[in-house]
Amino acid sequence: MCNLTCKKASMLVCGGFIILMFTLYALFFNHGAPEDIMVANKGSQVNPKFKHYHDRDPHKMNELEKEVAEEERRAAQHWDEFIAKNDFVNIGEIYDNCDEKDRVMIGRTIMLPTVHWAGLKGVKSRTFINITLHEELTGGKFFLEVKYNGKDLFARNWELCTLDEDYDDRVVYCPFLAQDYSFVKDRDIPVYLPKGRYQTKGWITDVNDEIVACGFSDFTL
Ligand SMILES: *[C@@H]1O[C@H](CO)[C@@H](O)[C@H](O)[C@H]1NC(C)=O
């Protein structure tokens, strides 16, 4: 059925396919083994990833600023203890506001190993948020900015209420009543992302464009 030319052609196709698979393989594993990524992102007390306003010189603050700084310090300490107690790999912080002079920590983002589809090993993020809403949140927007190796990679925004409607682990259902909430949300970090440093800033606004929550993450693949 298949003459010599046909056989050569099918070998070529097979060869091409194998090369393609190897390339894809190399691409998929571009950002290394999950264990190595976890170690690289562990961070330390000596060299913290995030700077805090309350770490500044109290002599340069007035009485009100000192009080705010003390509240911020206590909240950050609470979440630090949560991270330390569970030996988590800390990659992000969530606040009630984006302004570094006046924000209280309400959550953290950590990195965990995971297994993606087809058994590919990788990492994912898990975000913990404990927030008290003082007013009902009927809608708003979610903004996300991502920097890659210090350069702007992308900036987008979405309607808050439909943000995660397609996910099995949906947590956003509008409206949010004025009460306490405790969220835990996982996100896969795609295996195809190239090696490098990723810094993200994400924030949620209400219908009056007031910021309700603001998060920062910093991790290296
Ligand atoms: C967050 O809130 C939940 C539910 O109230 C609580 O069980 C958990 O300990 C809180 N986490 C932290 C770090 O405070």
In angstroms, what separates the terminal alpha carbons? 50 Å
Task: State the helical fraction.
Answer: 25-40%
The H/E string reads HHHEEEEEEEE
The strand order across the widest sheet is: 5-4-7-8-1-2-3-6
Beta-strand content bin? 25-35%
Helix/strand class? alpha+beta
What would you say the CATH architecture of the largest domain is? Answer: Sandwich
The level-1 CATH class of the largest domain: Mainly Beta
Rg is 22 Å
**Number of helical elements:** 3
- Molecules bound to protein: 2-acetamido-2-deoxy-beta-D-glucopyranose
The domain count comes to: 2
CATH topology of the largest domain: Immunoglobulin-like
Keywords: Membrane, Transmembrane, Transmembrane helix
Transmembrane segments: 12-29
Describe the structure.
With 221 residues, the chain is of the alpha+beta class. It has two domains: 1-30; 31-220, Sandwich (Immunoglobulin-like). Helix content is 25%, strand content 34%. It is built from three helices and eight strands. The chain has helices at residues 4-28, 34-40, 63-86; strands spanning 89-95, 105-115, 121-132, 141-148, 151-159, 180-189, 197-205, 211-220. It has an eight-stranded antiparallel beta sheet with strand order 5-4-7-8-1-2-3-6. Strand 2 (105-115) and strand 3 form a beta hairpin. The radius of gyration is 22 Å and the shape is elongated. The mean pLDDT is 89. It binds 2-acetamido-2-deoxy-beta-D-glucopyranose. The site of 2-acetamido-2-deoxy-beta-D-glucopyranose has 4 residues, from helix 3.
